[in-house]
Amino acid sequence: MIQLIRKSGEGRVGLIDEVRGFAILCMVVYHAFYDIVNIFGVDIPLFYSPFINSLRTIFAGAFIFISGSACYFSRSNLKRGIICFGLGMVMTIGTALFMRDQLILFGILHMLGVSMMLYVPCHWVLKKLPDWLGIGILFVLFVLTYHLSSGKMGIPGVWEFTLPSTLYDLGWLSPLGFLGGGFYSADYFPLFPWLFLFLLGSYLGKYLKAGKGPKFIYGTHSRPLAFIGRNTLIVYVLHQPVVYGILWVVFTLLQTAGIYSY
């Protein structure tokens, strides 16, 4: 992952590494329980509760936001984007070959990869606007498109409207957020609204690169979390087969012992 440095060129933005590390660990735990429930058939009603879904969204959103902040420190966001999207495609091929029921067509890696590539032209436009205006526009777009995959735009209970169903019948528009047409992805993070949150994160990167953050942000408070945060891409790619392998061994042993069957 890209190294975050202070304006002076010394050290790292430690707290950002740590928050990113914590967020990716939360995603690993979530995916472990996802496998337990959906692959190994353990009934855990709480897993699908609004509370757990909200936590998943919060931690995934934090990860996306912080990933956007790294763009301001990267020498080549295009290269990062191609690599990230390529790894997403590796996961697509892997799940298509070995875990068809858990096929990932457009997950968080795909979305982040495309967002990194789109950052280049988007930044060219945003830098022409005052920061407050750019942040305001991106925030409004994020809010308005947050429920796009459910067929609506706007703010529920305040102002919203239903979009034409033809947009959702096409299927190939699902990566944008128009979910439909028989499209399925076990891990689904459409470009809208998440691109806007990613771009919002780039303003944090601009602020930190200028050395305007409080001193405690730049220091490292937990070396293990910081290490994980510096290697989130590797952790994300490797954790799924590792977690699945461990669970497979555990549940196979439980089945052999007659304690569990699936």
What is the secondary structure topology, with strand pairs?
Blueprint: H1 14-38, H2 50-69, H3 77-98, H4 108-126, H5 131-145, E1 152-155, E2 159-162, H6 166-169, H7 191-209, H8 215-218, H9 223-230, H10 232-256
Antiparallel strand pairs: 1-2
Helix pairs in contact: 1-2, 1-9, 1-10, 2-7, 3-4, 4-7, 5-7
What does this structure look like?
This protein has 10 helices and 2 strands. The chain has helices at 14-38, 50-69, 77-98, 108-126, 131-145, 166-169, 191-209, 215-218, 223-230, 232-256; strands at residues 152-155, 159-162. The longest helix has 25 residues, at 14-38. Helix 1 crosses helix 9. The model is unreliable at 1-11 (pLDDT under 50). With 262 residues, it is mostly helical. It has a two-stranded antiparallel sheet. The two termini are 38 Å apart.
Top keywords for this entry?
10 helices; mainly alpha; 2 strands; globular; two-stranded antiparallel sheet; 262 residues
Largest beta-sheet details: 2 strands, antiparallel
DSSP helix count? 10
Shape: globular
Helix content: 55-70%
- Give the strand order, joined by hyphens, for the main sheet: 1-2
Radius of gyration: 20 Å
What is the H-and-E element order? HHHHHEEHHHHH
Straight-line N-to-C gap: 38 Å
Q: Are there runs of 5+ residues with pLDDT below 50, and where?
A: 1-11
Task: Tally the beta strands.
Answer: 2
Strand content: under 5%
Mean pLDDT: 88
What structural class results from the helix and strand content?
A: mainly alpha
Overall domain count: 1
